[in-house]
Specification:
Blueprint: H1 11-15, H2 20-28, H3 32-46, E1 53-57, E2 68-74, E3 83-89, E4 95-104, E5 109-118, H4 121-130, H5 134-146, E6 153-157, E7 169-178, E8 183-192, E9 201-206, E10 227-230
Helix pairs in contact: 3-5
The structure holds zinc ion.
Residues 20, 59, 61, 173, 186, 204, 229, 236 line the site of zinc ion.
Length: 247
Protein backbone atom coordinates (compact mmCIF):
# COMPACT_ATOMS: atom_id res chain seq x y z
CA UNK A 1 0.00 0.00 0.00
CA UNK A 2 1.07 3.58 -0.34
CA UNK A 3 1.75 5.61 -3.41
CA UNK A 4 -0.17 4.89 -6.55
CA UNK A 5 1.42 2.82 -9.31
CA UNK A 6 0.07 4.15 -12.61
CA UNK A 7 1.09 1.87 -15.48
CA UNK A 8 1.63 2.80 -19.14
CA UNK A 9 -1.05 2.08 -21.74
CA UNK A 10 -0.76 -1.49 -23.06
CA UNK A 11 -2.22 -2.51 -26.43
CA UNK A 12 -2.19 -6.15 -25.35
CA UNK A 13 -4.11 -5.35 -22.18
CA UNK A 14 -6.74 -3.35 -24.08
CA UNK A 15 -7.06 -5.83 -26.92
CA UNK A 16 -7.57 -8.69 -24.44
CA UNK A 17 -10.82 -7.15 -23.19
CA UNK A 18 -13.91 -9.25 -23.78
CA UNK A 19 -17.17 -8.14 -25.36
CA UNK A 20 -19.84 -6.64 -23.12
CA UNK A 21 -22.22 -9.58 -23.43
CA UNK A 22 -19.61 -12.03 -22.09
CA UNK A 23 -18.65 -9.74 -19.21
CA UNK A 24 -22.26 -9.15 -18.23
CA UNK A 25 -22.91 -12.89 -18.32
CA UNK A 26 -19.91 -13.65 -16.05
CA UNK A 27 -21.04 -11.15 -13.46
CA UNK A 28 -24.67 -12.30 -13.46
CA UNK A 29 -23.64 -15.88 -12.73
CA UNK A 30 -21.78 -14.80 -9.56
CA UNK A 31 -22.60 -12.62 -6.58
CA UNK A 32 -21.36 -9.37 -8.12
CA UNK A 33 -24.67 -7.53 -8.05
CA UNK A 34 -25.45 -8.78 -4.53
CA UNK A 35 -22.15 -8.39 -2.76
CA UNK A 36 -18.96 -7.42 -4.59
CA UNK A 37 -20.37 -4.24 -6.11
CA UNK A 38 -21.20 -2.98 -2.62
CA UNK A 39 -17.67 -3.76 -1.38
CA UNK A 40 -16.16 -1.75 -4.21
CA UNK A 41 -18.53 1.16 -3.56
CA UNK A 42 -17.59 1.07 0.13
CA UNK A 43 -13.94 1.61 -0.90
CA UNK A 44 -14.96 4.38 -3.32
CA UNK A 45 -17.05 6.12 -0.66
CA UNK A 46 -14.26 5.77 1.92
CA UNK A 47 -11.91 7.47 -0.51
CA UNK A 48 -14.35 10.35 -0.93
CA UNK A 49 -14.52 9.64 -4.66
CA UNK A 50 -18.17 8.69 -5.12
CA UNK A 51 -18.94 11.72 -7.31
CA UNK A 52 -15.82 11.27 -9.40
CA UNK A 53 -15.39 7.51 -9.87
CA UNK A 54 -17.90 4.88 -10.95
CA UNK A 55 -17.64 1.13 -11.45
CA UNK A 56 -17.36 0.08 -15.10
CA UNK A 57 -17.86 -3.30 -16.71
CA UNK A 58 -14.61 -3.70 -18.65
CA UNK A 59 -15.19 -4.44 -22.32
CA UNK A 60 -13.60 -3.61 -25.63
CA UNK A 61 -15.14 -1.90 -28.64
CA UNK A 62 -12.35 -2.30 -31.20
CA UNK A 63 -8.63 -3.04 -31.29
CA UNK A 64 -6.24 -0.34 -30.20
CA UNK A 65 -4.16 0.66 -33.25
CA UNK A 66 -0.35 0.63 -33.05
CA UNK A 67 0.92 3.92 -31.61
CA UNK A 68 -2.62 4.92 -30.67
CA UNK A 69 -5.00 4.51 -27.76
CA UNK A 70 -8.80 4.77 -27.45
CA UNK A 71 -9.48 8.42 -26.64
CA UNK A 72 -12.78 10.20 -26.00
CA UNK A 73 -13.54 13.56 -27.56
CA UNK A 74 -16.56 15.69 -28.37
CA UNK A 75 -18.34 14.48 -31.47
CA UNK A 76 -18.48 16.59 -34.61
CA UNK A 77 -21.13 17.18 -37.25
CA UNK A 78 -24.09 14.86 -36.80
CA UNK A 79 -22.45 13.52 -33.62
CA UNK A 80 -21.90 16.95 -32.04
CA UNK A 81 -24.03 16.14 -28.98
CA UNK A 82 -22.25 12.81 -28.43
CA UNK A 83 -19.03 11.66 -26.82
CA UNK A 84 -16.95 9.66 -29.27
CA UNK A 85 -14.15 7.26 -28.30
CA UNK A 86 -11.85 6.20 -31.14
CA UNK A 87 -8.16 5.48 -31.71
CA UNK A 88 -6.04 8.62 -31.47
CA UNK A 89 -2.27 9.15 -31.44
CA UNK A 90 -0.67 8.77 -28.03
CA UNK A 91 0.49 12.15 -26.77
CA UNK A 92 2.02 13.19 -23.48
CA UNK A 93 -1.03 15.15 -22.40
CA UNK A 94 -3.66 12.51 -21.78
CA UNK A 95 -6.30 12.04 -19.12
CA UNK A 96 -7.12 8.44 -18.19
CA UNK A 97 -10.88 7.90 -17.91
CA UNK A 98 -11.16 4.09 -17.84
CA UNK A 99 -8.91 2.25 -15.39
CA UNK A 100 -8.18 -1.37 -14.60
CA UNK A 101 -6.67 -2.99 -11.52
CA UNK A 102 -3.50 -4.77 -12.70
CA UNK A 103 -1.12 -6.77 -10.57
CA UNK A 104 2.32 -5.19 -10.86
CA UNK A 105 4.65 -8.17 -10.40
CA UNK A 106 7.79 -6.10 -10.15
CA UNK A 107 6.45 -4.12 -7.21
CA UNK A 108 4.09 -6.83 -5.82
CA UNK A 109 1.22 -4.37 -5.64
CA UNK A 110 -2.10 -3.75 -7.34
CA UNK A 111 -1.48 -0.97 -9.81
CA UNK A 112 -3.78 1.20 -11.95
CA UNK A 113 -3.68 0.52 -15.68
CA UNK A 114 -5.30 3.08 -18.03
CA UNK A 115 -7.45 1.54 -20.79
CA UNK A 116 -9.04 4.64 -22.31
CA UNK A 117 -8.28 8.35 -22.31
CA UNK A 118 -10.11 11.63 -22.81
CA UNK A 119 -9.21 14.85 -24.59
CA UNK A 120 -12.11 16.74 -22.94
CA UNK A 121 -11.40 19.44 -20.32
CA UNK A 122 -14.07 18.23 -17.84
CA UNK A 123 -12.33 14.86 -17.54
CA UNK A 124 -8.95 16.48 -17.02
CA UNK A 125 -10.29 18.54 -14.11
CA UNK A 126 -11.85 15.44 -12.54
CA UNK A 127 -8.64 13.42 -12.92
CA UNK A 128 -6.65 16.14 -11.14
CA UNK A 129 -9.03 15.81 -8.16
CA UNK A 130 -8.85 12.00 -8.22
CA UNK A 131 -5.05 12.04 -8.18
CA UNK A 132 -5.17 13.93 -4.88
CA UNK A 133 -6.64 10.74 -3.34
CA UNK A 134 -3.85 8.37 -4.39
CA UNK A 135 -4.08 6.20 -1.29
CA UNK A 136 -7.84 5.89 -1.65
CA UNK A 137 -7.57 5.02 -5.34
CA UNK A 138 -4.95 2.40 -4.51
CA UNK A 139 -7.28 0.89 -1.90
CA UNK A 140 -10.11 0.70 -4.48
CA UNK A 141 -8.00 -1.20 -7.03
CA UNK A 142 -6.74 -3.50 -4.26
CA UNK A 143 -10.37 -4.26 -3.40
CA UNK A 144 -11.20 -5.11 -7.03
CA UNK A 145 -8.04 -7.23 -7.34
CA UNK A 146 -8.58 -9.12 -4.11
CA UNK A 147 -12.14 -9.90 -5.19
CA UNK A 148 -10.65 -11.51 -8.32
CA UNK A 149 -12.68 -9.20 -10.57
CA UNK A 150 -9.81 -7.29 -12.18
CA UNK A 151 -10.49 -8.62 -15.70
CA UNK A 152 -14.21 -7.85 -15.49
CA UNK A 153 -14.62 -4.68 -13.47
CA UNK A 154 -12.75 -1.38 -13.52
CA UNK A 155 -13.19 2.28 -12.71
CA UNK A 156 -14.73 4.98 -14.86
CA UNK A 157 -13.99 8.67 -14.33
CA UNK A 158 -17.54 10.02 -14.12
CA UNK A 159 -17.25 13.68 -15.18
CA UNK A 160 -16.66 13.43 -18.92
CA UNK A 161 -18.33 16.52 -20.33
CA UNK A 162 -19.93 19.82 -19.41
CA UNK A 163 -23.08 18.67 -21.14
CA UNK A 164 -25.80 18.17 -18.51
CA UNK A 165 -28.28 15.38 -18.91
CA UNK A 166 -31.87 16.54 -19.17
CA UNK A 167 -34.40 15.42 -16.58
CA UNK A 168 -35.52 12.54 -18.81
CA UNK A 169 -32.16 11.40 -20.21
CA UNK A 170 -29.55 8.69 -19.69
CA UNK A 171 -26.27 8.01 -21.48
CA UNK A 172 -26.47 5.14 -23.94
CA UNK A 173 -23.38 3.80 -25.71
CA UNK A 174 -23.06 1.97 -28.99
CA UNK A 175 -20.25 0.73 -31.23
CA UNK A 176 -20.50 2.56 -34.56
CA UNK A 177 -18.49 3.18 -37.71
CA UNK A 178 -18.00 6.94 -37.96
CA UNK A 179 -16.31 9.59 -40.09
CA UNK A 180 -15.61 9.66 -43.82
CA UNK A 181 -13.36 6.61 -43.45
CA UNK A 182 -15.92 4.72 -41.33
CA UNK A 183 -13.54 3.91 -38.49
CA UNK A 184 -14.80 2.13 -35.41
CA UNK A 185 -15.82 4.20 -32.41
CA UNK A 186 -17.83 3.96 -29.23
CA UNK A 187 -20.51 6.64 -29.44
CA UNK A 188 -22.17 7.76 -26.21
CA UNK A 189 -25.36 9.75 -26.66
CA UNK A 190 -27.96 11.14 -24.29
CA UNK A 191 -31.20 9.33 -24.89
CA UNK A 192 -34.68 9.96 -23.51
CA UNK A 193 -35.35 7.50 -20.71
CA UNK A 194 -38.90 7.09 -21.93
CA UNK A 195 -37.46 5.81 -25.22
CA UNK A 196 -35.14 3.30 -23.53
CA UNK A 197 -36.36 -0.22 -22.89
CA UNK A 198 -34.32 -1.12 -19.80
CA UNK A 199 -34.94 -4.83 -20.13
CA UNK A 200 -33.00 -4.62 -23.38
CA UNK A 201 -30.09 -2.81 -21.75
CA UNK A 202 -26.85 -3.78 -20.07
CA UNK A 203 -25.69 -1.21 -17.56
CA UNK A 204 -22.00 -0.54 -18.23
CA UNK A 205 -21.22 2.12 -15.61
CA UNK A 206 -22.56 2.15 -12.06
CA UNK A 207 -22.48 5.08 -9.65
CA UNK A 208 -22.32 4.89 -5.88
CA UNK A 209 -25.58 4.47 -3.98
CA UNK A 210 -24.12 7.13 -1.67
CA UNK A 211 -25.11 9.56 -4.39
CA UNK A 212 -28.77 8.87 -3.61
CA UNK A 213 -28.97 7.46 -7.06
CA UNK A 214 -30.68 4.21 -7.81
CA UNK A 215 -28.05 2.48 -9.92
CA UNK A 216 -30.54 0.27 -11.69
CA UNK A 217 -32.85 3.06 -12.72
CA UNK A 218 -32.11 6.14 -14.67
CA UNK A 219 -30.86 9.17 -13.02
CA UNK A 220 -32.44 12.42 -13.91
CA UNK A 221 -30.38 14.58 -11.59
CA UNK A 222 -26.95 13.26 -12.31
CA UNK A 223 -24.81 15.06 -14.85
CA UNK A 224 -22.45 12.14 -15.11
CA UNK A 225 -24.52 9.15 -14.27
CA UNK A 226 -24.74 5.52 -15.21
CA UNK A 227 -24.34 4.45 -18.78
CA UNK A 228 -26.25 1.75 -20.59
CA UNK A 229 -25.91 -0.11 -23.84
CA UNK A 230 -28.15 -2.22 -25.99
CA UNK A 231 -28.11 -5.93 -25.24
CA UNK A 232 -29.37 -6.97 -28.64
CA UNK A 233 -28.71 -6.45 -32.31
CA UNK A 234 -24.90 -6.47 -32.14
CA UNK A 235 -25.00 -2.73 -31.49
CA UNK A 236 -22.31 -3.02 -28.87
CA UNK A 237 -20.25 -5.96 -30.04
CA UNK A 238 -16.49 -5.87 -29.97
CA UNK A 239 -15.08 -5.29 -33.45
CA UNK A 240 -11.94 -7.22 -34.25
CA UNK A 241 -10.12 -4.70 -36.40
CA UNK A 242 -9.19 -1.09 -35.88
CA UNK A 243 -9.30 -0.02 -39.50
CA UNK A 244 -12.15 0.63 -41.86
CA UNK A 245 -15.40 -1.16 -41.54
CA UNK A 246 -15.56 -3.99 -44.05
CA UNK A 247 -19.04 -4.89 -45.18
ZN1 LIG B 1 -19.03 0.00 -24.31
Amino acid sequence: MGSLQLLEFSHDRYNALQGIVEVDHHLRTGTFFDRELHEIFAAIDDAGLSRLVGVALLHGHFDAAPGQAPTQSDGKGALRDCLVTANAPVTGDRTPVLLKAAYHDGASVWAVAPLEYSAIAAAKVAWAHIMKQEAGLTRIVETIGQLGLDDLVGLSVLPRTDRKLGSDEAWVEQTSAVGDDMHWANVVAAQRVSDVVFGDMIQTVFVSPAQDINPTACVPVCDVGPTFCNRYGQMHERQSNHGRRHT
